[in-house]
Amino acid sequence: MIRKHIIPSITVILLSIVIFTSTNCKNSTEPKDQDTLVTVFKPNIYLYPETIQQLSVLLDFPKGGFVTISDPEYQNGWNVTVDPNGLIDNKYGFLFYECKVPDSWQYKYGWFVNKTNFEEFFTNNLESYGFLGKEIEDFINYWLPIFSDYDNLIVYPQVDSEIEELIVLKIINQPNSIRRLFYVITDYSSQIKIPLTPIFNSINREGFTVMEWGVILK
Prior knowledge:
- The chain has 4 helices and 10 strands, in the order αββββββααβαβββ.
- It starts with 6 loop residues before the first helix and ends with a strand.
- It has one domain (34-217).
- It has 218 residues and is of the alpha+beta class.
- The strands form 2 sheets. Strands 3-5-1-10-9-7-6 form a 7-stranded mixed beta sheet. The chain has a 3-stranded antiparallel beta sheet with strand order 4-2-8, with no helix packed on it.
- The model is unreliable at 1-28 (pLDDT under 50).
């Protein structure tokens, strides 16, 4: 026979287990279907405050995901000192990370790009989206040698609102201007339908400006 005074203790224990399990599930950043994860390669975050500032930069993954590598180390966020020219902690030109997220990108709009036009296309395209100087040079210098293995590319642009659905970028203090641009890039084959041409807008780089580019290579 179970004594009456033991029953409340058992109830408390069971209730605690239910609350603990429910809380952990709610806060989990693991996607439901691990097979849908794709790698976002080398997003570079360029920061241009108007004055030297201490900035906290955080990433959040509302549909699940996680940072795989970063430089400087991400930990629970970046806390850095940034000059108006974009120099971070007197050492870095940008915040670098890579991550895994669900493959929920848009595949309706994009471009077919021939190998002979890779450099011209990405230079002009990045510029059209508002990127300048070193931001474009960093992209070209890193990605062009990788793209040289491909004859033709299908390029699907992912812009601010589409990226925010998967990777939220939180910056304290709030920037005046922000542009986030990821490319989902795949090798062209006859089985792939040529996407519709995107309609896009540049940004006015005014005040505290943040620029970010990255690639999902498939």
